[in-house]
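User: What would this chain look like folded?
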Amino acid sequence: MSAGPASATSYTLYCDTSSASGAGTINGWVSGATSLGVILSVYDAKADGHHVAIRLIAKNDGGGVLTPWPWHHNYSGYGESLTLSTTAGYSAGMYDVGIEVATFEGDTELNYCRDWLRSDQT
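Assistant: Here's the prediction, encoded as C-alpha cells.
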C-alpha cells in the first residue's frame, strides 16, 4: 500500500487483512516528530466471530520498531467500524510512522498488516 498526501503535512495509510480493513491519517508528519495528531479507523469485514483492532506504530532513528501505543479494539462485530482521534508522542522522535491492523481471537493476534509512511516518502 502507498501513502497519499491529504495536505502538506497530512498523510493517510491503509492496510487490509482477510477480515479487517484499517486506515490512519497522520497529521503534522515530519521525520523525527515527537508528537503527531492521528485519526485511526478499523472496520470488521468478515462475520467470523473474531474482533479487529488498529494501532499506531513507528520506527526510531536506528530503524527499530516502536509499539508503545495501545491497540484500539473494535468489538462491535461484522460490518461495524471504530474511528478515533488521538495524539501520539515519543520524545526520542519517530522517523517512520505507520499503522498496524489485526484480527484477534480473545488476546491472541491471528493475522495483521502494516502500512508505513517512511521519511523518504515525504
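The longest strand covers residues 81-94. If you want, I can go into more detail on any region.
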